[in-house]
Amino acid sequence: MELIGEKEFAEKVKACWAGKALGGGLGAPYEGVPYELDLTPERLFLDSGPNDDLEMQLLWLLAAEEHGSRLTARHLAHMWSRHIKYGMDEYGVAIRNLRKGLEPPMSGFVDNASFGSGMGATIRSEIWACLSPGRPRQAAFFAAQDAMVDHYGDGVWGEMFLAAAGSIAIVGNDPVTALKEALAVIPAESQVAQAVRYVFELHAAETPAEELRDRILKRFGSHNFTYCVMNLAFLTASILYGNGDFIRTIVMCINFGKDTDCTAASCGALLGLAFGEAEFPARWLAKLPDRITVSDFLKKLDALPETLSDCSARVIALAGRIEAELRRDGRELVCDYRVPQTDGTKWLPRSSYLIFNDIDDMEAGKVERELLKSGPEAGLYAEHRHTFSGTVLELTPFLREFQSLHLFTFLRTAGTHPDGLFMCCSNMGSTLWVDGKMMLNYHGRELMIPAFHRTEGGATFGLPLDADKPKLIHVRLLFARRGTQLVLGAGEQCGFYIDDATFDI
């Protein structure tokens, strides 16, 4: 490594993974809390369970070892399709799109408005930094190949930014300078860049630490705790105000709330890349097991590194190989990622519903009984049938003042799914009946998070699904107003959408 000595580089790569594991383990118990916390160093404890932040990068290591400097988004998408078995948020959307035959960047773009700017890619940045020491644009290139599989826009720029920051920190020994200089690899007008610059401005103005959270949320907050723009602002604030102190940085990061395992893990990794393990408290390093714990579905992959030490050694060897390949071929890796401009409508899932905005509950009950009796093929109330593209139904055009909306459709699957899941969420009060039986009555008026494992604005519950036995779905939306949305989904226990499920009437 011409920009850094081999011994120092090895120490920093090892510290990167140690910081990642420590930060993630300390932040994991508070993941998703929507409020500000008041933890002190004495109240921290370490969760050493599996963490997608780290274990997905082990898969990327396998892909990078196979393809070297020629690694592309298609290679990583292939790893997704073969090995990833959790379907949270953007992961589930990507798997559904890949199963349809969409390739990156469309796999991360189509029908992904709810999660395209999530933290799922940003948390995978460290491997690209370690494979590109002192070469931030190369790190950003690899990060974009990774992120565009399941994200677009700020979800991609977030990983590019953090990968570049890590690359700079390895040779520059300063996480603050690294964050500032990494802005050069992403568009200045992106929300990620604006949020990071805003935090630097707050710091320069000597804004009290206790005011930061409210100031950040006012400009870049989201009800989705995984929104990367908000979380990268928290990360930046923690690095700036932590002044290189590991525990002070991690505690501040966790106390912001939201995606605490991800932000704390990324803070820990960046500090490790900048300073090595010297800044890590000995008592916490002693608690960190060298062995990497992974999810059950990855345990069958014998090629995965089993320890942080093995992971570090393989990453170091691969970094040298990639550098040699690029020098030999006279190539330079620079990213030109742009948000897809292709119309993705033709790939969106299609569904149809009967929609009534002029009937009361008694009349809706009559419609329900008639549909249960006639089945999906009778074609009743054809004048009320409407077709939609995409998972999120935009219902504003159907509103009528002071009237509830009643929607009817049939859920069908080609296969049998005894452990099926059903999701219903809306930003309005909703009641759901399945085959005439009330299954959900939710009126929290929360903004939607249409994810099987953390549904907001409704709920997800078990629903066995039988082949060729359609289920009548009836939804009532109370007090519907402009901006009313609805999401229905059928899924598997792992969170994947069921490919053969349709909503049609």
Task: Describe what you observe in this structure.
The chain is of the alpha+beta class. The protein folds into two domains: 6-329, ADP-ribosylglycohydrolase fold (Orthogonal Bundle); 348-504, Jelly Rolls (Sandwich), CATH 2.60.120. The chain is built from 17 helices and eleven strands. The protein has helices at residues 6-27, 52-67, 73-83, 89-99, 106-109, 126-130, 136-147, 154-172, 175-182, 191-204, 209-220, 228-242, 246-255, 260-275, 282-287, 308-329, 361-374, and strands at 350-356, 385-389, 392-394, 405-413, 421-426, 429-434, 437-442, 458-462, 471-478, 485-491, 501-504. Strands 1, 2, 4, 6, 7, 9 and 11 form a seven-stranded antiparallel β-sheet that branches. Strands 3-10-5-8 form a four-stranded antiparallel β-sheet, with no helix packed on it. Helix 2 (52-67) crosses helix 3 (73-83) and helix 12 packs antiparallel against helix 13. The chain is globular. It starts with 5 loop residues before the first helix and ends with a strand.
